[in-house]
Amino acid sequence: xxxxxxxxxxxxxxxxxxxxxxxxxxxxxxxxxxxxxxxxxxxxxxxxxxxxxxxxxxxxxxxxxxxxxxxxxxxxxxxxxxxxxxxxxxxxxxxxxxxxxxxxxxxxxxxxxxxxxxxxxxxxxxxxxxxxxxxxxxxxxxxxxxxxxxxxxxxxxxxxxxxxxxxxxxxxxxxxxxxxxxxxxxxxxxxxxxxxxxxxxxxxxxxxxxxxxxxxxxxxxxxxxxxxxxxxxxxxxxxxxxxxxxxxxxxxxxxxxxxxxxxxxxxxxxxxxxxxxxxxxxxxxxxxxxxxxxxxxxxxxxxxxxxxxxxxxxxxxxxxxxxxxxxxxxxxxxxxxxxxxxxxxxxxxxxxxxxxxxxxxxxxxxxxxxxxxxxxxxxxxxxxxxxxxxxxxxxxxxxxxxxxxxxxxxxxxxxxxxxxxxxxxxxxxxxxxxxxxxxxxxxxxxxxxxxxxxxxxxxxxxxxxxxxxxxxxxxxxxxxxxxxxxxxxxxxxxxxxxxxxxxxxxxxxxxxxxxxxxxxxxxxxxxxxxxxxxxxxxxxxxxxxxxxxxxxxxxxxxxxxxxxxxxxxxxxxxxxxxxxxxxxxxxxxxxxxxxxxxxxxxxxxxxxxxxxxxxxxxxxxxxxxxxxxxxxxxxxxxxxxxxxxxxxxxxxxxxxxxxxxxxxxxxxxxxxxxxxxxxxxxxxxxxxxxxxxxxxxxxxxxxxxxxxxxxxxxxxxxxxxxxxxxxxxxxxxxxxxxxxxxxxxxxxxxxxxxxxxxxxxxxxxxxxxxxxxxxxxxxxxxxxxxxxxxxxxxxxxxxxxxxxxxxxxxxxxxxxxxxxxxxxxxxxxxxxxxxxxxxxxxxxxxxxxxxxxxxxxxxxxxxxxxxxxxxxxxxxxxx
Length: 879
Hints:
Elements: H1 5-10, E1 21-24, E2 47-51, E3 57-60, E4 71-72, E5 80-86, E6 89-94, E7 106-111, E8 115-122, E9 125-132, H2 140-143, E10 147-156, E11 164-170, E12 183-188, E13 193-200, E14 219-225, E15 229-236, E16 264-270, E17 280-289, E18 294-296, E19 299-303, H3 312-321, H4 323-345, H5 347-362, E20 364-368, E21 374-378, E22 386-387, H6 390-403, H7 405-420, E23 434-435, E24 438-439, H8 455-473, H9 483-496, H10 517-536, H11 540-561, E25 562-563, E26 566-567, H12 584-588, H13 596-609, E27 623-625, H14 626-633, H15 639-655, E28 665-667, E29 673-675, H16 687-691, H17 693-699, E30 719-723, E31 732-736, E32 755-758, E33 761-762, E34 773-774, E35 779-788, E36 797-803, E37 807-810, E38 813-817, E39 826-828, H18 832-835, E40 841-850, E41 857-865
Parallel strand pairs: 1-16, 18-24, 33-34
Antiparallel strand pairs: 2-3, 3-4, 5-6, 5-11, 7-8, 8-9, 9-10, 10-17, 12-13, 13-14, 14-17, 15-16, 18-19, 19-20, 20-21, 22-23, 23-24, 25-26, 27-28, 28-29, 30-41, 31-32, 31-35, 33-41, 35-40, 36-39, 36-41, 37-38, 37-40
């Protein structure tokens, strides 16, 4: 006797966090054929499922899809669940719950560049579950779409017919940062799709910046073809919520909810289907429309796919029409790339690169500037949360130089424009653009010494990347508009690069080091790269001069760095050694500054000192960096040497007990993650393809193209404080340290019993704080009246510094909520509803701030533009 699906779904009890959206699919299928995928060679530490950008990034941290719940790359729950029923008998195929339902045996897992394929077998059927993210580098339009297709394909293995159905749900955790945030939801039924949607009610667009954060603005979507759908609904679970799964032709709109243990249920009922022995498939789309992606100085950037005015409905409609052609294209692309990777480095190398492929894209966000040109921003995942970091751009560069030089430009333009602006006062390249997703100016090392900002490291990185791009395209066109600045950086390397002073390199966790030989190696190759740029730009005499300097420095470097059988960590430290990962770029850009024998000696030394799980960074540590390790061993001229050095790195990825998206910093003795995870620097693994000129020249021209100039950097003109902060005036606030009565944030609240003090508030030693009143308790509430002039304000924004988690209200309406802490005054957009309350004359600002550890401070005011900005910020509609 068949078990009614209502009973199957009704058994899905168990705890769920508050903001869950369950999207269920029903497929009644019979006679279901399909070919199983081959078993994957690599056991991924975590398996890529939905991989688009640092916010929409979902992974399975287990060997089997039923052994663990799926997670965001940060490890927080982003649960996807699927059940199947075969001839009335239920099984789990995705997710750890409900534990009362047995898992259908998983027989294979294959991770390919654009697809992850699970195979299950039992009860006379074979099921493949395919996650397809069309990350095709020749098609920026589709590459930038935040859509992953999930396909169930069946076949009978016993010659009989079977009835089958599928249930799928996706948690609304995907649309919030924390489980206590309130979620709203809706459904739609256009002619061709059934669409279910949810997102936070608050919609704090680009309000937070930091590392361990998830998105809480924009909307998560699940959509299925209407032709296969009878109905769809969203309903609360609990005593009878999932019993609603079985009521046809009903859509129930519910109030937003965030009650503990309360979930939302979104259900698809797909038409019953009886099939023959041919393969049978059903698919859905999972999508996320963030609407605004990056705060880029004065402009909130749209995602690239929205640059021509497309909205979520258009996105889903286009993606649905593209399903079949994209499925074919992804299959062809995966087969061709895997063959090329096998040829470059062998079977294991191919599978490790396949794992790194979507992780590289998922660590970046592709946006459109004011002229519709692509800008790409990487995030330092679990490193420090920086955005646009040059020493992240550099290790991921091999990937984009090989597959899409246009995206190499898209990641370089923001840092070049920032460095050329009045915001950057130094004679060397910047380190970063801010803290993700706020690209508003460097935060790393500011206020410290030059060596804290990695001047040699970053200047060398940019010049080498520009030289590699110019080699690929046969011109120096991208460099030409920045020529005086780039020449200044090259001259800085001439002065400081051969024998660097005490400064950081990109392995900053190991501290400052003077006379760093590997850093000097980068500087010399950077000078050689600039000589190539000069040559391609028609500056022949400059090309000769810088090339002569590079050759001279290369000869001196070999004498200064030489030790017995290898080169030193630092010139002044005999008996030491380190990776020389920068050496491979001499081969990549063809500068030919160093003899092949230098690489041969390093390879021979690495074979002696490598550990069980790979080559350590240097003699001081047992830890390795996976991108550096691949670059260090890539100069091996004999495949046997490369494979002997690559095998331990492969073993790390295959055996590490750290079940996170591939960590690039790990311990070579036990294979454990040391730090970092899910970073796009794993794009550096593709160095073998980049270092082989025929391979590079085969793939790079196939990448997507861009045309037309990029928009000017939207930094705007100077600002003025229309509501002063402590930076410009002695401002008085009313404050209390005890929880106030309800209504404390409203203009008519009586605060005469509160204390009075001068802003700002905090403790001595808090970075960036201006102190007028000491505040050292856990909570602080502030109120302040201010007067606005009788004229329109020019793009008013909050000016604020905080430590930590402030909420700012204007005339009783939430203006902004920020998470974490910052060390300098920052600007924050004012929510449209709060902005609408501002009026000439008296107004009220109310602030709540809290403290958990470390320093503490708060100060706030309002600034406006003193003159027109270069680009008008886009402002989302009120939720």
